[in-house]
Amino acid sequence: MVGVHEWALAEAVVLTLSQYLREVGWSRVSRVVVSLGELQAVDREVFEFALKELTSLYGVEVGRFEVVDEEASFECRSCGFRWRLRDLNLPDEVRESIHFLPEAAYAYVRCPRCGSADFALLSGRGVRLVGVEP
Amino acid sequence: MSVLRDPRLVAIGERLREVRAVVPFLSSKGGVGKTLVSVATALALGRRGLRVGLLDLDVTNPTVHVVLGIRPGSLVPREEYGVVPPEVSGVRVMSTVFYTLGRPAPLRGEGVSSAIRELLSITRWGPLDVLVVDTPPGMSDELLELLTYIRRFSSFLVTTPSRLSLDSTARLAELVARRVAGVVLNMAWEVPEEAVRLADRLSAPLYVLPYDSSVEVALGSPERLAETRFARAVDRYVAEHVVRLLQNRR
Ligand SMILES: Nc1ncnc2c1ncn2[C@@H]1O[C@H](COP(=O)(O)OP(=O)(O)O)[C@@H](O)[C@H]1O
Ligand SMILES: [Mg+2]
Ligand SMILES: [Zn+2]
């Protein structure tokens, strides 16, 4: 179960924390908040497991990871319409492609109102390191 | 609570740790042969027994797969602690086409940067002697991502003999400066003085590749491409240069 792509996403977070701790000279952090964008559809359980494994692998001491969800929403640059990912009905293969590369959404999603391909991803793209507490 | 940087940026360095050399092909103009030369170089290096990766950084208009004869949808990177690029004709290939399936995916600059960071931070190339990078024309997000996040690379500037192309190549050369391994004069119907001077200024060799009409029918077939006069010149000059570059790094 750990052999999946979530591992690489979690590793990016842990490596960044490790570098940050070195830069600011802390030995540990008490709390780390990571947000998971709905668009990337990261398997939360796997991701949290990978975070745990990787922090011990890289010797990064974290008191508590707080993994929060972020809803994916879009705004059309052409007509201004706003919509959410859950308003769309994307087939499984498309979700799979977007899971690996969220920008692939631009190949499959169009503005539900005017059909434009020029839209902004307002929130909920992928994995984001929201912050850390000493 | 402190806000931290994009976690993908640190991961990029980690993913490229076992890559001995990154070799991008750059030009400020389109249609000068970056894709063809970079794919031919990667294939030639693969035939010489090197461990080669080939990254299509033209994320909105990928074409590496066309030269290699990969039908969009027929191949997907394997999921394994990230994604592992599929091997085609001895070369490990990564492209956004594996995920967009060849549909138009128009991206603004921010989306381009983000797509590149995502690809670079999840792709497990494994140990490579060389990662060949095909790039889109110009000096925009793709090039800036390269310059900023893959600082160590040796590039080839690709140009035609046209003054339009040479003039923009000179501008690009200023930006990339000391990271130029060679200048490739492609579809060379002549060897203009400006091309020679440009290479001199960069203290880089000028490699002259012929215009070869047999290239067109060889598109989609790495075996047929290898037999063209064009590919033989790429092997003799460009691939050979990369081999020497690797030897000097030992
Ligand atoms: N040396 C050459 N001889 C013949 N055709 C060439 C040669 N180099 C490139 N081409 C052709 O020119 C066109 C543009 O090449 P391409 O590699 O796509 O350029 P770029 O990637 O710089 O936009 C393609 O159709 C390609 O097959
Ligand atoms: Mg190209
Ligand atoms: Zn619209």
Tell me the name of the CATH homologous superfamily of chain B: P-loop containing nucleotide triphosphate hydrolases
Question: How large is the radius of gyration of chain A?
Answer: 17 Å
How much of the residues of chain B is beta strand, in percent? 15-25%
Largest sheet composition of chain A: 3 strands, mixed
Kindly report the greatest chain-chain contact and the residue count on each side: A-B, 39 and 37 residues
Shape assignment of chain A: elongated
CATH architecture of the largest domain in chain A: 2-Layer Sandwich
Helix coverage percent of chain A: 25-40%
Gross morphology of chain B is globular
Portion in helices of chain B: 40-55%
| CATH-derived topology of chain B | Rossmann fold
What is the name of the CATH class of the largest domain in chain A?
Alpha Beta
N-end to C-end Cα span of chain A: 31 Å
Low-confidence stretches of chain A: none
Order of helices and strands of chain A: HEHEEEHHEE
CATH class of chain B: Alpha Beta
Return the CATH topology of the largest domain in chain A.
hypothetical protein PF0899 fold
Radius of gyration of chain B (Å):
17 Å
Number of domains as seen in the coordinates of chain A: 2
Q: What can be said about the biggest beta sheet of chain B?
A: 8 strands, mixed
Quaternary structure: heterodimer
